[in-house]
Amino acid sequence: MSRRTRKLPTEPVTATIESMTHEGKGVTHIDGKAVFVHGTLPDEEVRFQYTRKSRRYDEAKVVEVLKPSPLRVEPKCKHFGLCGGCSLQHLDSSEQIKNKQQILLDNLQRIGKVEAKEILAPMTASAWGYRRKARLGVKHVRKKEKVLVGFREKGSGLLAELEQCEVLHESVGKRLLELAELVRSLSCYEKIPQIEVAVSDDHTALVFRHLEVLTKDDMTKLTDFAKSNDLYIYLQSAGPDSITPLWPENPELSYRLDDFDVEVFFEPSDFVQVNTEINRKMIPQAIELLDVQSNDRVLELFCGVGNFSFALARKAEHVTAVEGEKVLVDRARENAKRNKIENVEFHVADLFAVDPQTPWLKQDYTKILLDPARTGADAILPTLAKMKVSRIVYVSCNPATLARDAGILCNEYGYQLSKAGVMDMFPHTAHVESIALFEKKK
Description:
The chain is α/β, with parallel strands linked by helices. The chain has 3 domains: 1-72, CATH 2.40.50.140; 96-126 and 255-263 and 273-440, Vaccinia Virus protein VP39 (Rossmann fold, 3-Layer(aba) Sandwich); 133-199 and 204-251, CATH 2.40.50.1070. The protein has 9 helices and 22 strands. A hairpin with a 3-residue loop joins strand 5 (45-53) and strand 6. The radius of gyration is 24 Å and the shape is globular. The termini are far apart.
């Protein structure tokens, strides 16, 4: 039996927004029940329309702001509210990062039961055109007789009808309509589900996923588009291993870390940080917090293609870097050769189930850097604690798991949280990127 759909009220409701969730939704209460209202700010008086009702809470969208917050700004993107890519464009950028800082501190106290001795100044950069990695959905909508390229509608599985994106790098963000027209011109336009975007320092790569074989005419159209717009075009017929360049024949993507005389090469499907400006600020800060000296032997976990590895190697005696994905480790080893860095070694290992007899675990280390995925690093912490290193720097993309792991390090393994702060890696979204320094208590 299908679950009965709760009937939505048709008349707009007037209310005062009491607070805001960590996801950027305004919160009010109607008859004692929480209602999350998208696009609102605390202390605003608004009229809203219900979009979803459930047993524990309801959701709604703002219809009219009757009494705006002084922190409210006009969203730069005309698609804000429809597109699910951004949730905070209506809030001043300086307030966005303050809120993210508070989210981090609240999580540390509530989940980890710890407080940082020093709060680092928030790290910020350009708030627009910053995004250099993205996966764009592609869909031919028969009712509209057009192809859509972009992100999904807020709270929906449907693609939003977008003309441009203000947070994507302009080489792509200003070309959504052109990309839609290009796809529509292909023979298999109904079989192109996505376009992967990867922007390097010098080039923009687009990976076209296709579920049918492209014709010679299709490939000519894609190649001509690449040449006329100075783009790299790749094709993907199946999984990531099937990605191959169409134009040019041997493309290269890379980003430079001039402070460390390093150039990091990557493939379009590799994980790299989406915000180049923040990344270039984050790496020196991590090394400064770690206080890397010429006699240090550093263990780096979740190293990826070597984003921190080579900068660390420029400062330390030796770096041992470990990553779970072999393809990224292979890339990192190649990057070490290209940069002529010999005091770094890379290993493949499942960092959520490490064998204690693994040779690299038996080496002596003085400091550790962690940059895990959203799930955090709790599985490896007991092993790291036995090393009794003086400093651990933890780069996090999830304040909740950082807080959990901070609690473990501080309350179980004799570390103190010396410094912590946030980095605005994803402006206008609720995503919180942070960095923390843990020091061994004496």
